[in-house]
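Possible race condition, two jobs.
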Amino acid sequence: MHSGKHEEAIASFDLALSFSPGYANAVYEKGRALFILGNPDAAISAFERALEMNPACNQALFWKGRAYFEMGNFEDAIRAFEHAIENNYRTADLYYFEGMAYAALDQHREAIQSYDCSLEIGHSAVTLSHKATSLAELGMSRDALETFDKALEQDENSPEAWMGKGNVLYDLGKYPEALAAYERCLELEPENAVAWTRHGMALAAQFQSEAAIESYEHAITADPTFSIAYFTKGSALIALGRYMEAVESFNTMLTIQPDFVDAWIYRGRALQEQQKYQEALTSFKRALEIDPGRKEVWEDIGGVLDTIGKHEEAKICYKKAG
């Protein structure tokens, strides 16, 4: 249904409520229309009003949880889902979104429990993929791979499952297998900037920096705002000794994500290689302003100071590096 149709639906619900103010279902349906129109805050108000009229309207609890989830308020989303479960409203979708909310809070054991409840009601490649991702976050790589394979048995054309499997294989150092998984993902989603970036990372890990850069450029073409692609491209350019281009890539990333500490650090190192020592120091100091806990940056600063003959200052920096 187009947005215009949803707006018409809201007007119809309002008209119905003007004749029957206690019509809970009309308020609930209005909330759903507001949610679909991208107004989760107003949708929540509608769902709460529906629940005041009819506390047994468990679908309103579910959609209230969905609206909180959409707003990034994961704790309240979980509370709404749990309230529905207490009322014996249990659906695969409810448990799936509850799992997603727990995962967003890095509570992956709880997420897995919710995904399992969802899977008991109905198998889904998407749910299996999210369960596998939570398993991987807990360091359970073997179980994660098995679960991604189950997802691919359900749907061999699931780009999410291929991507997730590639990520686990990459983390295990199985770079050729990871590369093959990313390539399968890209066959299904050729404009997936994340997959192109991960594809490049798998190539870079096998010392194929030139090929990696091509993948990062594909990622940037697919999504010019995907900042990590500029960072990984810059890192590959450093590996090839192309320091000026690397700085340009880091600069572009930092216009998108100015507080990304590693970009300031690597930018400083690329500038140092070009003997642009003052600019390098400025870059390193900016990294420390963002994250004073990155003590290794003091080592970088010390190295620059040593190079320009400020040996006593360099010694102080090396001590700070620990």
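Job #2 (started ~2 s after job #1):
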Amino acid sequence: MVAGCAFWPRPAVVPMPVLREPAPQRAAMLVVMLPGAYSRPRDFIDEGFVQRLRAQRVAADVLIADAHLGYVENGTLLERLRDDVLVPALRDGARRIWLVGISLGGFASLGLLMRHADWIEGVLAIAPYVGQPPLLQQVRAAGGARAYAAAPARSTSAAFRIRAERVANGVFRHSAKTAWERASIASVSGQESSSKVSMISSVAGLID
């Protein structure tokens, strides 16, 4: 019973809590890491993500947001990431912002890129959640994400029962080519943490 409670959505507090890992010297670049639905910010440190980024000698501050499922449940996930993470970072002098997200975090990263492409230099979405089966079937039937984005918009059906689906639909429909070119999407099994960490080397090569 106690173990099952760990999978209940946690309270969506305001402002959204963040874990900061500043660079040794002041940096104009910020890497924002967004965890999966049931992960904690500390997991990015314990699993070696921050260490790998530092090993690549990337001059960047790291900010890990506690963007958990509770914010999806109350419909404020992207709003809180904007107001509690991105806006303060820009105000504090960040000039280059990269997002690294796993699963729900990858979904949120793409949603932020869709809405705020001018603020974000790039995204690494690792095994991102991008919608429930009905939406994915529509994308597949259309011939892929690009073809789906070019097709006339469909009305939202009863199959899309969570607020996040609206954002997922928007991610696929987003037509800002420059924004999509800045999104690197990696398909990695949720159990392959070493593979996930290795992706940081890839993003480090892009942002250096």
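Confidence is low (pLDDT under 50) at residues 1-5, 155-167, 171-180, 187-193.
Logs attached separately.
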